[in-house]
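Narrative of accomplishments. A recurring question from our advisory board has been how the design workflow behaves on a single, concrete structure rather than in aggregate. To address it, we present the structure tokens for one chain from the evaluation set, followed by the sequence designed for it. No filtering or post-editing was applied between the two.
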């Protein structure tokens, strides 16, 4: 569905300013396309969420974009809107002017607070009575270095101002004791650069093989539409494959719906360190403007998108989404020695991607479409691993010493992807496939038999699953109403890649708020408001919302309109080689046709002999 235009964003903001009954100091957390209206192909509506600092209240509702009417506008009780960049900047200034904070810096030998960077992180909800009902952020502090290109190189460990963002003041300074500030490491950018790299250019003299019409894309039988929201960033709609002149739907909507990064150090205030980057800050607002030859190489088509600032003013992110083709090695090959015949085809993939810069870290979200009908989903992570200070000579109990006086703690990056499935139509069923060794008996005298066990996940209670590499487990979304030429239901299988489970106790404050991360695969019956895995308002939420809450209904899933949620957990104990800047790490999984086609759909890719 087409993302909101600048005109639509302005109309929505003006409508809320006029009819929303808000104080002048209120700001806009979100102005995005209303997904449920878009899915119903109804007239377009904008979803709008605002925060009013003077009353510490969050409001949300819809604006009908046809006639500018405000609908369903209400105060959402006991929630906090996402934290916005203006609040980060304001908190930093508050701390730099606070006498108690200045005193805490002096105890550490820091006389000039203007050299101190204070990043305010969402404070979570740890049930502390004095923190309830306030809009909070917890500060993490660094002494900026002289080169200025690594503000995180000199952590001021154990010093955490707690901000009331609505009141614009520090309500408490948590000081767990002084740790020596690490020495200034100098600039990240080195003068000495290797000089043995010859130019590598990627040219497509005849242009790319895709065609683009606005946000609609056609490439190698694939059809889809690119979309965007300020919360999730890149969204894909109406992914389908043209098969013998017929456009066959696969997914209605695909996105990275939520993510959380829990850290594993229990000491000081480090237990509070975790980030729901989507629900607490927003991925879409943080998208980079990509640069040709730097972020992207080759023949690139860029999509610009309209975000907005906190006054509701449209803000264009140029080159927010990148699309290009990549050579991907061999697609298929066979040899017939008796005829001295070898046939090979080259694989090519379509790449649609975006990068989000959030504080010290950068996440890339990459979607790959292949000529064999597969879809790859990959997250790339780079940036500066979150550092804290440690006394020289001490070893790190919960992390790695990455530089003199700096440790970086063990953590996980947990991504929750949401797939509104439509394999050859909206009515789908999910099965789980496991393989097992048959017993040694009369039917299996040589002990080689492999049994395929396919089980239907009939309802939401049974459809909460974990990966099992030992049984080669995968999940298959089938359409029981459509069969292939072998009489089997057509389907796509979800093939996990490397993954992990969380180590946070399920009853911990973070565990309750991120219940989605305890299962790798969830299936729900489609419901218009079930978009975000930890609920709509994870910031300071006490927990229990989102997937674990919705599946209590135990709705039936057989031959239903279903949504598949996949949790991908990248477990990360930082290495010295992740410092000062972490080389990109990759985490991925795939959707692969499984009986969707009657044969390899790429037999018509031109041969090379
Ligand atoms: Co990491």
């Amino acid at each position: 569905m087409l993302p909101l235009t600048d005109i639509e964003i302005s109309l929505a903001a003006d409508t809320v300013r006029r009819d929303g009954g808000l104080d002048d100091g209120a700001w806009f957390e979100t102005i995005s396309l209303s997904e449920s209206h878009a899915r119903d192909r109804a007239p377009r509506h904008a979803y709008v969420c605002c925060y009013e600092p003077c009353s510490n209240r969050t409001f949300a509702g819809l604006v009908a974009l046809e006639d500018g009417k405000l609908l369903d506008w209400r105060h959402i009780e006991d929630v906090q809107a996402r934290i916005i960049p203006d609040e980060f900047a304001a908190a930093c200034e508050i701390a730099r002017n606070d006498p108690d904070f200045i005193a805490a810096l002096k105890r550490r030998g820091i006389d000039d607070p203007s050299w101190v960077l204070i990043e305010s992180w969402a404070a979570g909800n740890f049930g502390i009575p004095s923190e309830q009902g306030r809009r909070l952020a917890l500060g993490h502090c660094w002494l900026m270095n002289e080169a200025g290109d690594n503000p995180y190189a000199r952590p001021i460990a154990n010093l955490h101002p707690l901000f009331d963002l609505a009141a614009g003041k520090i309500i408490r300074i948590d000081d767990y004791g002084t740790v020596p500030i690490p020495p200034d490491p100098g600039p990240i950018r080195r003068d000495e650069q290797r000089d043995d790299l010859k130019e590598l250019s990627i040219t497509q003299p005849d242009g790319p093989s895709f065609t683009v019409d606005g946000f609609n894309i056609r490439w190698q039988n694939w059809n889809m539409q690119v979309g965007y929201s300020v919360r999730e960033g890149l969204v894909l709609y109406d992914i389908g494959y043209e098969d013998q002149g017929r456009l066959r739907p696969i997914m209605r909507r695909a996105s990275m719906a939520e993510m959380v990064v829990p850290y594993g150090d229990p000491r000081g205030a480090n237990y509070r360190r975790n980030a729901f980057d989507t629900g607490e800050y927003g991925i879409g607002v943080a998208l980079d403007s990509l640069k040709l030859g730097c972020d992207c190489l080759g023949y690139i088509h860029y999509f610009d998108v309209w975000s907005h600032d906190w006054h509701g003013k449209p803000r264009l992110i140029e080159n927010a989404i990148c699309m290009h083709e990549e050579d991907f090695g061999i697609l298929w090959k066979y040899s017939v020695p008796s005829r001295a015949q070898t046939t090979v085809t080259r694989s090519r993939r379509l790449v649609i991607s975006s990068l989000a810069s959030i504080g010290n870290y950068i996440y890339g979200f990459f979607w790959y479409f292949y000529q064999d009908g597969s879809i790859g989903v990959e997250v790339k992570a780079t940036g500066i691993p979150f550092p804290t200070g440690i006394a020289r000579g001490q070893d790190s109990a919960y992390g790695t010493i990455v530089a003199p006086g700096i440790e970086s703690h063990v953590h996980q990056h947990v991504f929750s992807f949401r797939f509104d499935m439509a394999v050859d139509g909206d009515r789908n069923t999910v099965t789980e496939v496991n393989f097992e060794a048959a017993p040694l008996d009369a039917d299996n005298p040589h002990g080689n038999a492999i049994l395929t066990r396919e089980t239907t996940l009939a309802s939401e209670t049974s459809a909460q699953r974990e990966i099992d590499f030992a049984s080669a487990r995968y999940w298959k979304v089938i359409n029981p109403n459509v069969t292939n030429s072998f009489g089997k239901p057509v389907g796509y299988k979800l093939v996990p890649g490397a993954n992990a489970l969380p180590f946070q106790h399920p009853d911990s404050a973070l565990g309750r708020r991120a219940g989605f991360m305890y299962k790798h695969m969830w299936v729900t019956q489609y419901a218009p408001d079930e978009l975000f895995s930890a609920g709509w308002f994870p910031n300071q939420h006490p927990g229990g919302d989102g997937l674990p809450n919705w599946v209590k209904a135990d709705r039936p899933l057989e031959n239903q309109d279903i949504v598949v949620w996949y949790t991908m957990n990248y477990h990360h104990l930082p290495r010295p080689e992740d410092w000062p800047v972490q080389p990109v790490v990759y985490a991925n999984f795939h959707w692969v046709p499984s009986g969707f086609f009657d044969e390899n759909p790429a037999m018509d890719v031109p041969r090379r002999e």
